[in-house]
Specification:
Elements (H helix, E strand, L loop, with lengths): L2 E4 L3 E3 L4 E7 L6 E8 L2 E7 L6 E3 L6 E6 L5 E7 L5 E9 L4 E4 L3 E6 L7 E4 L3 E3 L3 E7 L8 E6 L2 E2 L5 E3 L3 E3 L2 E6 L1 E7 L10 E10 L11 E12 L6 H25 L2
Parallel strand pairs: 2-11, 13-22
Antiparallel strand pairs: 1-3, 3-8, 4-5, 4-9, 5-6, 7-8, 9-10, 9-11, 12-14, 14-20, 15-16, 15-21, 17-20, 18-19, 21-22
Amino acid sequence: MKVQLIAPQYITYGETATLFCNHTVSDDLLHKIEFMKAEKRIFQYIKERNPPYIETQHIDGIKRLEYSKNGTTIKLHDVHFDASDSYTCEVTMTTPIYTAGADPVYMKVIRPQSATPKITFQKSIYMVGESLEANCTSSAAYPVPYITWFINGKEVDITLVNHYPHTHHKNDAYLMSATARLKVEVSALHAGPNGDLEISCRATIPAFPMQHEKFADIKTKAVLVQIIPAPEMTSSAAILVRELTLSTILCILNAMHEFIP
């Protein structure tokens, strides 16, 4: 017997989560299907019973539970943050009497970002060799987004980024925004064909997805910064340096001549 729970890993606050208990037991051998939240039963289907359904009257974080006729699917309506938990299902067959459970799925209720991040910096034109500092701030969300910086589409080394403490939203204790500062010395290699450098930041939930997992929420902002070359030494300055160098050499030679017989 094989049992698998198909459920979303992330669900938006206030939406409906559908959980499907997929199993290989034939209908004539099926006895019972149960759904659990954190090892606590929230729904039970027993085929021979009339009516065959028993649902828990109160489930934390869930306003209403709906189920399918054959007991394999339940819908959790209007989910709140307390609905975030580990879910699983078990199937029992009649002959032979045997129960098998599915691997648990952790479902996280999120509140996505409402807008793209904001990038702020001191000026829009930088000279090669100057230090560029910029802040990226996400919009409020839950859980707090994670910020990643990019320069010309390439992810920035984490040593160039400083993550500040999260900011809590004044109207909702759950919601938080993130801010991260980028500090990098501008190089001529940063400038593109038009002399522009693109800096962008990405705010994501979760911070780092697991293998074969996608971001549940992602927002990106990009801006262009103009790069100008450092001023070259003027011709008069170059002549002065050359003359000073020549005079210095002559002084050294004269001094040596006085001491050499």
